[in-house]
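Dear support,

I submitted the protein below through the web form. The confirmation email said the job was done, but the results page showed an empty box. After a refresh the structure appeared. I'm attaching both so you can tell me whether what I see now is the final result or a partial one.
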Amino acid sequence: MRWQENQTIAVSLFALAMAGIALNDTLIKFMAPSIGLPQIMVIRSFVAAAIFLSLFRVRRDLAELGLRGWLALSLRGFMLALAMSLYFTSLILLPIANAMALFFTAPLFITLGSVILFKEQLTIYRILALAMGMLGTWLTLPSFELGVSFGAMLALASAVCYAAFQLLTRGLREVGSTLAMSTIQTLAYCVISGAWLVITTLGAFATEGSDLLGFLLRGWVWPNWNQTGMIAVGTIAMLFLSVAAPHAYRQVEASAMAPFEFSTIGAGIIFGIIILGEWPDAYAYTGAALIVGAGLLMVQRAQVRQQEANQAQSEHSPDEVA
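What the results page shows now:
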């Protein structure tokens, strides 16, 4: 068996990639008082797109897609861009903890969607891991308060769009290659973030200030060397996730992958301590432990399923003639 087909490796790389995104988010928060979100997204997505398009294999895979393949993968890419846009907009209207807690209902939608659309089996282990991840997330965000508002609806809509994005990843696993899927996703980011930055730069909505509105509406500013390095780290994290995520969702059922979406919360606590000096309370430590436990449970079950599949394959293979 090739390593690319090993489910344990696939989910482990995905969990590592989600931890990288937690590092990226922490660095973005560190830069927020001076550089706007649309500029960070533009630099990351355009650099990532240039790297992808410089590869001959990527250009070949894109050429072989055909119109239907381009449309399907573009829908997937824009669904992610829409999810992130809705999420960051909800941050204007909600406390950050509330928006994050609502966004991380996405794994629940992923699990339900995988059962309805793909008829995947919802085992007791997957239910347990999902419950551990959900509880762990809510423990790390103890200031969440339930309430119905426009901001809450936006945050929930972002979770639904993100779930649709990952379900499309699973449903389109036979369309094109992982690299083609990742490249078109990055190009969708280029379109959305590019338009966003042009509007904010020309409009000069929030050239000053370090509040959240300024972070979202600040136009182009020239970064210093430290900020350039941070953006470079975020670009690497984005590249890693854009390949690791579709690869994992192609190899593993979506309902089994859902708990790993929570891994960014636990990693975010660690990076928050190291970079920002933000020490969480005991609830957050308990929540992080539950999230890690959910991931380890799914890794262990992936190993068991892999062993069972290998054993079944060996039993059905014809005996070699001496």
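Response: this is the final, complete result; the empty box was a page-load delay. Residues 92 and 212 are 7 Å apart (CA to CA).
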